[in-house]
Amino acid sequence: MKRILLAEDEPVLRMLVVDTLEDEGYVLDEACDGQEACDRIAAGRYDLIIVDYMMPKKTGLEVIREARVGASATDAKILMLSAKNQQTERDKALEAGADAFMSKPFSPLDLVARVEDMLGG
To answer: What are the Response regulatory domain coordinates in residue numbering (predicted)?
Structure first.
């Protein structure tokens, strides 16, 4: 069973993503801000981390950087979600260590397809 961490501060979007991916058989943990995401990454093992760009306490970029270095470094795939869809923002996310970038708004079907692609089916 693949485990996913979703770090998203918007409750409605968090619920949509959780419901969509749980319907596909994934196990999800949730974080509502960047610090909680970092704490969960340090405490658990995830196959995929889905992280929002703009969050309270720590940004998505900070979460990604922390997830990629130090004692709690993870080899989980990381998908950045953002309403900031300029190429410079995509580049920043990839440079920080994200494996992929997805612009908001997105369709649930597109999210499922991206997750399945990143997790190998």
So the answer is: 3-119
pTM: 0.94
Q: What is the pLDDT of residues 71-114, one digit of tens each?
A: 667 889 999 999 887 889 899 999 999 999 999 999 999 999 99
10 Å CB burial of residue 67 (0-12, 13-18, 19+) is buried
76 CB burial (10 A radius; 0-12, 13-18, 19+): buried
